[in-house]
Amino acid sequence: MTDPVPPLQIGRLEIDSPITQAAMSGYSDWPMRVIARRLGASYTLCEVMLDRFVVEVSRGPKAGRLLRVTDEEHPCGAQLMGAGPEEFGAAARRLAEIGFDCIDLNFACPVRKVLGRHRGGHLLRRPDAALEIVDRVRESLPPEMPLSIKLRRGWDDGQESEDHFFAIFDGAFARGATAVTVHGRTVLQRYSGKSSWDFLRRVKQHAGSRTVLGSGDLFTAEDCVAMLRETGVDGVTVARGAIGNPWIFQQARALLDGRPLPPPPSLHEQRDVIVEHYRMAETVYGPWRCGRIMRKFGIKYAGLHPQSKEVREAFIAVHRPEQVNDVIVQWYRDDLPGRYPEVIQIEEE
């Protein structure tokens, strides 16, 4: 019998499970976060937002979609990204006023257009600039407001990159950060190759009692538990593994409690969640755009269907909102057993 895993502590936030949902551009919107919470996620992060957008935009559909946190979601964090320190502080302060429970700074994103604008993972090459941002944000927030940082293990595999990583890691805590999430890939790796759990283990040993969350290659409930056990990190953040499979959180909770892995959701359980996801998406995006949103989520949900290839192709063929319902009626009519998603397919996507 393994020892119980303690609750996750991020500053003043005591989170009852160490399995959390990561911030994902284009995915971790309000409907996805709420569904994840209902199915066992202890803490979620919204889509990453540009500091300038938060400061300058207050109206319109995009503001209504992103600048949104509801009572059911707490605790919920907001992730910020930008290039310079000037607007980070004002943006963080506004997100705190809106009602987010923690501000998370993204120094990890490996997308080329982000790096080209000196944002995200680019800041791993500029420790002084990254730490000035931490200073500005910490000064702008109430003292009790938790501040966390998202890092990758470096720009590349070189020693200078590792030195920069630890300079930002230690400097962020020294400046008042309450937790750091570490993705085990480098920026140049993007999403290819394996995430280095050995590096996560080294980081946690270096951190001691400071809160560290791990990220990378968490596609199943077993992966989440294995990362906790093998690296010693205090929590994990599930990204791609949670898209279309919010049940991963309740499955991981069962394993952490010493219970057997629950069976995958049946087709009617899947159908009910997809329908509710659609209902919430329609309230956020309107009746036309929600069809496009649910098309991409439906492609991911298809991974749990026993005829996943055919259902995936049916969602790919969706071009109008009403066609989403057609797919649900055709493929989720009978309450058959579901299946666990194939890790290889998730990695390829």
Describe the protein's architecture and organization.
It is a single chain. The chain has helices at residues 30-38, 51-56, 61-66, 88-98, 112-116, 127-140, 159-174, 197-207, 221-231, 248-256, 267-301, 308-316, 321-331, 343-348, and strands at residues 8-10, 13-15, 19-21, 44-45, 49-50, 76-81, 102-107, 147-152, 179-183, 211-215, 235-238. It folds into two domains: 8-256, TIM Barrel, CATH 3.20.20.70; 267-343. It is α/β, with parallel strands linked by helices and 349 residues long. Helix 11 crosses helix 12 (308-316) and helix 11 (267-301) packs across helix 13. The protein starts with 7 loop residues before the first strand and ends with a helix. A hairpin with a 2-residue loop joins strand 1 (8-10) and strand 2.
Find the CATH topology of the largest domain.
TIM Barrel
Give the H and E element order.
EEEHEEHHEHEHHEHEHEHEHHHHH
Secondary-structure-derived class: alpha/beta
Distance between the termini: 36 Å
Give a brief description.
With 349 residues, the chain is an alpha/beta fold. The chain is built from 14 helices and 11 strands. The protein has helices spanning 30-38, 51-56, 61-66, 88-98, 112-116, 127-140, 159-174, 197-207, 221-231, 248-256, 267-301, 308-316, 321-331, 343-348; strands spanning 8-10, 13-15, 19-21, 44-45, 49-50, 76-81, 102-107, 147-152, 179-183, 211-215, 235-238.
